[in-house]
């Protein structure tokens, strides 16, 4: 009798620990799909070099994608940061989420993950009236829980298939050589990882990469265009100026 009760109790505990339903997983994109396109993406902002990145792209008739943090190099709600976000959006670039604090998402709980994603969505909606349809996990780290939360928030996860190496100590010469190598291979598409927070990326590597990529016949487009997907969730809310803080 005691054994039966123990087994029943154990089964009840196991049942309660199992999810009641299987949660959907967000799509993970690692490459573009539109032929002859390159999506130049820039992480970790909004930071001071955003203007120079944007100007280099626009001078070449190109656009890029900025994955913004909420509170990494600076608080997204400072007056300067809000101006940078608006400048990127107003100049035709795509703005997207790099989560709030640049934490390793694989170390966080369900609630913590929602908070990391929601706070950036809220900030971008407040500043430019748009909620991003794409999220890039810091360090490129994600697991099924991250994908479940992203799916619940109607976001897709974006990684990359080319890394300029600027965030891991690559010199200007090394980053340029990396671009030369990938262009020499001439894949149909390139989804390139860069970081807007490095002066050398904005002023030396990026102009070089733009020139070389365009000479090789690539169109430099937003992530959304290279995937043929909407950049933002359906959200008619206008920008809401305010004095928010991090």
From TrEMBL:
Q: Report the membrane topology from the UniProt record.
A: Lipid-anchor; GPI-anchor
Q: Which cofactor does it need?
A: Co(2+)
Do you know which CDD domains this protein is assigned to? CE4_ClCDA_like (cd10951)
Gene3D superfamilies (alphabetical): Glycoside hydrolase/deacetylase
Locate the NodB homology domain: which residues?
36-221
Compartments where located: Cell membrane
Subcellular location, principal: membrane
InterPro entries per UniProt:
Glyco_hydro/deAcase_b/a-brl (IPR011330), NODB_dom (IPR002509)
Q: Which UniProt keywords apply?
A: Carbohydrate metabolism, Cell membrane, Cell wall biogenesis/degradation, Glycoprotein, GPI-anchor, Hydrolase, Lipoprotein, Membrane, Metal-binding, Signal
- First and last residue of the signal peptide: 1-17
- Entries under Pfam families matching the protein: Polysacc_deac_1 (PF01522)
Which stretches are transmembrane? none
Q: What is this protein called?
A: NodB homology domain-containing protein
Q: What organism does the UniProt record list as the source?
A: Hohenbuehelia grisea
């Amino acid at each position: 009798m005691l054994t039966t009760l123990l087994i029943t109790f154990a089964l009840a505990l196991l049942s309660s620990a199992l999810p009641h339903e299987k949660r959907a997983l967000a799509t993970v994109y690692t490459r573009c799909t539109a032929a002859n396109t390159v999506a130049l993406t820039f992480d970790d902002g909004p930071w001071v070099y955003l203007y120079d990145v944007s100007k280099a792209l626009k001078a070449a008739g190109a656009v890029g994608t900025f994955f913004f943090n909420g509170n990494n190099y600076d608080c997204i709600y400072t007056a300067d940061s809000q101006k940078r976000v608006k400048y990127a959006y107003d100049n035709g670039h795509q703005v997207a989420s790099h989560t709030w604090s640049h934490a390793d998402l694989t170390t966080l709980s369900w609630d913590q993950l929602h908070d990391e994603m929601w706070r950036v969505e809220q900030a971008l909606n407040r500043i430019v009236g748009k909620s991003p349809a794409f999220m890039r996990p810091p360090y490129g780290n994600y697991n099924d829980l991250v994908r479940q939360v992203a799916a619940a928030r109607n976001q897709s996860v974006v990684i990359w298939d080319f890394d300029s190496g600027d965030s891991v100590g690559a010199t200007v010469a090394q980053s340029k050589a990396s671009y030369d190598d990938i262009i020499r291979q001439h894949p149909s598409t390139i989804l390139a990882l860069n970081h807007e927070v490095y002066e050398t990326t904005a002023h030396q590597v990026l102009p070089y990469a733009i020139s070389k990529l365009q000479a090789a016949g690539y169109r430099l487009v937003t992530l959304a265009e290279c995937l043929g997907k909407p950049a933002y969730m359906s959200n008619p809310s206008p920008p809401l100026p305010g004095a928010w803080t991090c």
